[in-house]
């Protein structure tokens, strides 16, 4: 039962999640005027790959303003193809898409971003070799690390391609009941586009250019996303553990009392994992790479975050059978964690801290196996005992772990 003040069984929609996450009115601003028929610049042809929720939202907004929008739907379902046709998006082959597009918006699960760049570069090289050469503005808007963005830019080196690093913060564009539109923030970095059509295009899909450096926009996305995804993973572990301890209701009640403004955000992050955890696995890995390469941090933190999303995405049925209530989501994840634990049986690792006493020296990284217990030696006062929850004593070492 949900504590008073937390709706139990509230439908989880993008609109309810957006208001609970960002607050009322965030992301809602007047749209630019329509292009007049006498405008000096014709709207560019926009290719969008792929037409998921975000891609379809941006496509719908562009089509509303008479921008030609094309996509490639090879391997996609009949339902997706019908949605694209209904939205006014033209389906073409991948080779035709690369040949026709003025701007390509890459909006994909992070793991698919680099393969698309390699496919596009291969087609562009073939077209250039046959004399069919034209400029393409390639905007990568995926949740990738700055180093991944720089690698993509390098792949296009020597081609007539302007690579733009970007990131999307917020939910997909959609028209609200009052006629206004919610639009996410799109930040870009790298070269500045000076084409006559760009000002209107940028104002329509809400682009803000923040830096001349490739990697800045994707880095901003990583830093922003780390807070929300990190919160989602920690909240999931906390709720699952509280459920197992029989104190979930009390946890939710205390959160509502001490953090009333944060509680809807926390619970919406758990609800949002259901259909997005499979994407968030790679995003957590990209965040990990960003924090290591550009922040100087160790990699362990977001490896654990990725592990949480792995459980939700691959050990539950929540992606296909999403729940509308946090307690139902927690119950499903609990079952999957128990199944995972029971399969490991007596070999389950039980990590915990122990108090140790070492001489005033530093040990090299090594391990010592004794029966079913393993001591891992690191720096002084940095020892972990795993594979045992019992007391352990190694008489032939200057170590006592109790």
UniProtKB/TrEMBL annotation:
* Segments forming domain Pyrroline-5-carboxylate reductase catalytic N-terminal: 45-126
Q: Which residues form the Phosphogluconate dehydrogenase NAD-binding putative C-terminal domain?
A: 242-311
SUPFAM superfamilies per record: 6-phosphogluconate dehydrogenase C-terminal domain-like, NAD(P)-binding Rossmann-fold domains
What is this protein's name?
Answer: 6-phosphogluconate dehydrogenase C-terminal domain-like protein
The scientific name of the source species is: Diplocarpon coronariae
Q: What's the source species' lineage?
A: Eukaryota, Fungi, Dikarya, Ascomycota, Pezizomycotina
